[in-house]
Amino acid sequence: MMSLPPQPLSPLDGRYRAAVESLGEHLSEAGLNRARVQVEVEWLIAQTDRSFFGTQPLDDAQKAALRKVVADFGQADIDELATLEATTRHDVKAVEYYVRRRLEGLGLDAIAELTHFAATSEDINNLSYAITVRDAVQQVWLPKLRGVIETIAALAREHRDAAMLSRTHGQPATPSTMGKELAVFAHRLRRIERQIEATEYLGKFSGATGTFSAHVVAAPDVSWPTVSREFVESLGLTWNPLTTQIESHDWQAELYGKVSHANRVLHNLATDIWTYISLGYFRQIPAAGATGSSTMPHKVNPIRFENAEANLELSSAVLDSLAATLVTSRLQRDLTDSSAQRNIGVGFGHSLLALDNIQRGLGEIDLDEALLLDDLDHNWEVLGEAIQTVIRAEVVAGRSTISDPYALLKELTRGKRVGAADLAAFVSSLEIGDEAKARLLALTPATYVGIADDLVDALD
Alpha carbon of 294 to those of 105, 235, 434: distances in Å? Predict the structure, then answer.
């Protein structure tokens, strides 16, 4: 058997690449290296702005030229870094040599020794990861989540008054509306979205063990915590003043926990929509030319929601593992976080793929309101709750002497099918006030939905 040409091992880089490639701009090795270059460049500019060791501040043209190195970072730079790393066997050292080459090309050799000055590799890495994760979340993942939430919210508004039979424990229960049930998911996801939006992306810049030791020896009169804080904040990050060699990654654990929470709510949505499709509540809109089954030509399978389920489970497995792993580092530093963090993109990639499937799936279904009404009409026994509750109110008001209304309705309805005529006859015979009796006789399963319609307005 002949060997295949090189193939992507992960489906995120193969079959599903088109759906997730926007994350590669940030959470790939190339994205990380570009961020590392950015941090090294900005550290050079920050040092010269303070005239460290007799240097002069760079002029605007020199700063622009250095920042252009980051802005123009492309395939040639990716390849150059790979070549450098093959020699250094150290990814951050390769970035340092890369930046030094650029300084030489720009005639800025005089400040070359300020490249990576007093910085441990983790000073560069933690800031780079914070930048790339922040940008991936804010520019790619959150907008996709918001799109799904708004799609759910739009469907909730559209079907706000579409009465349907509820199924608590999978059994017929007090009716609701499809709109209200969808609104629950939009509301849950919006709350998590706000929490993720408020994430603090922390960074440290304090040397080999977080003590500024090399900094103080080189320049004892400099307020290094102030320099560190201002530098970290200049990158749009929150300064962490107290760390070991590494930034403690607590913000990452918090973020990944919240994204995993969102995944699980989305998983709940996917399984519910799948079930509604199975019940016939939603019809699937066939795509022209698509095949549902290789042998059963009639089938339109709910594959969008099934694919979403699988990818949400994979995403949460990775993100939960990262959250658990990253908060522990032996003594002042070990390297477990290095390999672990290279899988951040995998966790977000599976989640993004699931969001794409859910959004597409929600656009391929149509509510069968006639079936919903027919289902309600076959389950009049769900009005038992309403009847026994009204009787209890009438007893309290002194208009009835019925004892144990709950037991009375339990005897009539539990485990049985009761029709409209049966319930009407039962209500007519009750010892309750005329107004209450009229209210119950007018009630149907389709109208027994409380204020479900109005509750959808909570989304606004």
Answer: 60, 53, 61
* pLDDT tens per residue, range 179-208: 999 999 999 999 999 999 999 999 999 999
Q: Residues 13, 19, 25, CA angle at the centre, nearest 5°? A: 70
Instruction: Summarize pLDDT for 148-187 with one digit per residue, the tens.
Output: 999 999 999 999 999 999 999 999 999 999 999 999 999 9
How many angstroms separate the CA atoms of 13 and 414, rounded? 54
Residue 97: other Cβ atoms inside 10 A: 17
pLDDT above 60 (res 127): yes
Decide if 293 is catalytic: yes
Which helix (H) or strand (E) segment holds residue 11: the answer is none
- Assess whether pLDDT exceeds 80 at residue 296: no
Q: What is the mean pLDDT of residues 244-269?
A: 98
pLDDT tens for 376-426 read 999 999 999 999 999 999 999 999 999 998 898 888 888 888 899 999 999
CATH of span 380-444:
1.10.40.30
Distance of alpha carbon 318 from alpha carbon 203, whole angstroms:
23
Residues 6+ apart with CB under 8 A from 305: 270, 271, 273, 274, 277, 357, 358, 361
* Residues 143, 58: Cα–Cα separation, whole Å: 37
The verdict on whether 428 is a catalytic residue reads: no
Cα–Cα distance for residue pair 79/72, rounded to 1 Å: 14
- Predicted pLDDT at 417: 84
Name the catalytic one among 51, 234, 278, 293: 293
pLDDT at 217 over 70: yes
Average pLDDT, the chain: 95
Pairing of strands 171-177, 163-168: antiparallel
- Asked whether the beta carbons of 424 and 445 are under 8 A apart, the reply is no
CATH number given to 20-119: 1.10.275.10
Long-range contact pairs involving 73-82 (C-beta distance under 8 Å, separation at least 24): 73/30, 73/33, 73/34, 73/37, 77/33, 77/34, 77/37, 78/30, 78/33, 81/33
CATH of 122-285+301-367, one of 1.20.200.10, 1.20.120.430, 3.40.30.10, 1.10.10.10: 1.20.200.10
Contact 182, 282 (CB under 8 A): no
CB 316 within 8 A of CB 263: yes
Chain region(s) in the chain for CATH 1.10.275.10: 20-119
Task: Determine the average pLDDT of the residues in 222-230.
Answer: 98
